[in-house]
Amino acid sequence: MRKNLFPDPPILLVCSEADWCENLMDDLTQDAGINNILIRNDSSKTVGLLQYQEISLVLLDPDTPPLSGEDVLEVLNYDHPRVPVIIVAGSNQGGRASHWLKRGAFGFHLKDESRENLLATIRKALTHCELQRENRALRERMLHDGLDQPAAFSGLVTRNRKMISLFKYIEAIAPSSEPVLITGESGVGKELFARAIHQASRAKGKLVAVNAAGLDDQAFSDSLFGHVRGAFTGADRDRAGLVEKAAGGTLFLDEIGDLNTASQVKLLRLLQEGEFFPLGSDTLKRVKVRMLFATNQDLAVKKVAGEFRRDLYYRLCTHHLHIPPLRERTEDIPLLLRHFLQEAAASLGKKIPTPPEELAILLSTYHFPGNIRELRAMVHNAVSLHRSGKLSMESFRRTILTHTRTAPDAGMGDFEATLRQLGQLPTLKEADEMLMNEALRRSQGNQKIAAAMLGISPPALSKRRKKT
Ligand SMILES: Nc1ncnc2c1ncn2[C@@H]1O[C@H](COP(=O)(O)OP(=O)(O)OP(=O)(O)O)[C@@H](O)[C@H]1O
Fold first, then answer.
1. How far apart are CA 190 and CA 200, in angstroms?
2. Residue 158 near ligand 1, beta carbon < 6 Å
3. Residue 77 above 90 pLDDT?
4. Per-residue pLDDT for 58 more than 50?
5. Could you report the predicted ipTM of this complex, rounded to two decimals?
6. For the segment 143-179, what is each residue's pLDDT rounded down to a tens digit?
7. Which atom of ligand 1 is nearest to 323's Cα?
8. Ligand 1: does its nearest atom lie under 6 Å from the Cβ of 338?
9. Quick check: do 11-132 and 144-324 share a fold?
10. Which of 239, 316, 398, 422 is the most exposed place for a label (fewest CB within 10 A)?
11. Which residues partner with 321 through β-bridges?
C-alpha cells in the first residue's frame, strides 16, 4: 500500500554529505512525520529539477558542488520566488546568517546546531507555502462564480452574498490542513458550516464533534486523547480518544471559548506538533487530523482579558469564518421559511401549509437573537398548531412581541444612547412621525405589522398618521 506522503509536494535537500542527509531524513521522519524528501548531491541539478517537479521548499547546503550557494539561491529566488530556501550550512559558514538572509534565504541553520530549531523553521516555511497556495486558490475562486462542490453546501439555505462568499472561501481552504475558526452568534449555523468544510475537504476519515463547554481538564483530555488502563479509578482498559477516531478526517471542537486554560496548552501542542499523550501514558501519539473550532464568544476580548492564550488564539485564527446573524440577511427569511415549513410538515406527517404573504415581512422586522435556530423553532411550533387553511401568524406574532418587549438587548440601550447625543430633541409630533415612518419602512408598508411594532392597533395608527 502507498504510504501517505508528507509534505506534498516534497522537500528538496541539496547536499553532497550522504551520511548527514540520511541522519536528517531519519530525524525529520521521526520528529515531524516528514517522509517526502528528494535528495540531490549536485547543485547544478537543482534548478533543472524545479522546472518539471513541484517542490514545497529547498534545504540548501551552499557548499554543494559544482555551483556556488549564492548562484543557486539567486536563480531559485528569481525563477521560483514562491519556493522558500533554507540554508543548512557547515561550520565554515558560522556567523554568516545575515549574508544569506539578505540574499533572500527563508532561514539559516548550521548543520551541527540542534535539530529542533531547523524543524521549527521547516514547519514555518511549510505553513507559509500552504497559506500562499490557498491565497492563490482563493483569488482564482473569487473570480469565478459557481461553486465546485455545491453538494457540500446543500444543507445551508441562503441567497445572501456574504454567505456565498464564505462558501467560496471554504472551497479554497478545504484541502488545507490548517485549523479553521468559525464564529457567529448562537444559532447562525456554525455546526452546519463545520460539516460543509469537512465534506468539501473530501477527507477520507470521519467528522467527529465534541463540545468543550463544561469540560474540566481531565474530562477534556480523556475525551480527546483517551487513556490507558489504570490512568484513574475506573479506567479498567485502554480507550482511544476522539482525536484518534477522527484520524484522517476532521475534529470539530464547539464552544472553544469555554475551554479551560490547562486544556488550552494541550490543544496548542496538538495543533502545532500533531502530538498528544493519552491520560496515564508517557508515550506520545501522533495523528493527522483537520481541526475546526467554533464559538459565539469574542476570543479577541478573552485574549486581552488573559482568559484565552495568545499563541492558541493566533493559531486558531489561521482561517476565520464569521457567519452573519440572520437579521443582517433578511433576504434569506422567505427561503428559510419555506425550508422549515417543508421540514416541519414532513416530520409531523402533515401537508405543507401555505404561509400568509405578510409572514416573511413580519419576520424580517424581528431581530432574531436566537438566529436560525429560533426561526426553525417558531415554524415547527406554528406547523404543529396548524389544523387547516392558511398558516396562522398568531404564534409568530406572540413570540415576536414577547421577545421584543422583554428582551434586554432589544436595542433600547442604543436608542437611549443616540438620544443623549442629540443636540436638539425633536418635538413629540416630529418623533411620532419619524417612528411611524420607520415602522412602515421596516414592515414594507404593512399597517398591521407596523402597528404591532409600535404597540398600537391598526386603526389607531391610521388615525395618528392622518393627524400628522
Ligand atoms: N443556512 C441554514 N439553512 C438551513 N438550516 C440552518 C441554516 N443555518 C442553521 N440552520 C439550522 O439552525 C439550527 C442551528 O444551527 P447550528 O447548530 O449549526 O448553529 P450554531 O451556530 O452551531 O449554534 P450554537 O452556537 O448554539 O452551537 C440547526 O437546526 C441548523 O440545521
1. 15
2. yes
3. no
4. yes
5. 0.98
6. 556 788 889 999 999 988 899 999 999 999 998 889 9
7. 21
8. no
9. yes
10. 422
11. 182
CATH superfamily, with its number, for domain 144-324: P-loop containing nucleotide triphosphate hydrolases (3.40.50.300)
Any ligand 1 atom below 6 A from CB of 342: no
Ligand 1 centre to CA of 214 (Å) is: 21
11-132 maps to which CATH number?
A: 3.40.50.2300
Ligand 1 atom 24: residue of nearest CA: 186
With the most atoms of ligand 1 within 8 angstroms of its CB, the residue from 159, 298, 323, 372 to mutate is 372
As a whole number, mean pLDDT of residues 186-214 equals 95
pTM of the predicted structure, to 2 decimals: 0.69
Whether pLDDT at 1 is above 60: no
Instruction: Show me where the domains of the chain are located.
Output: 11-132, 144-324, 327-410, 423-468
Cβ 157 under 6 angstroms from ligand 1:
yes
pLDDT tens per residue, range 413-461: 677 777 888 888 888 888 888 898 888 887 777 788 888 888 888 888 8
CATH class of 423-468: mainly alpha
Region label for 458, one of left (φ > 0), alpha (ψ between -120 and 50) or beta (otherwise): alpha
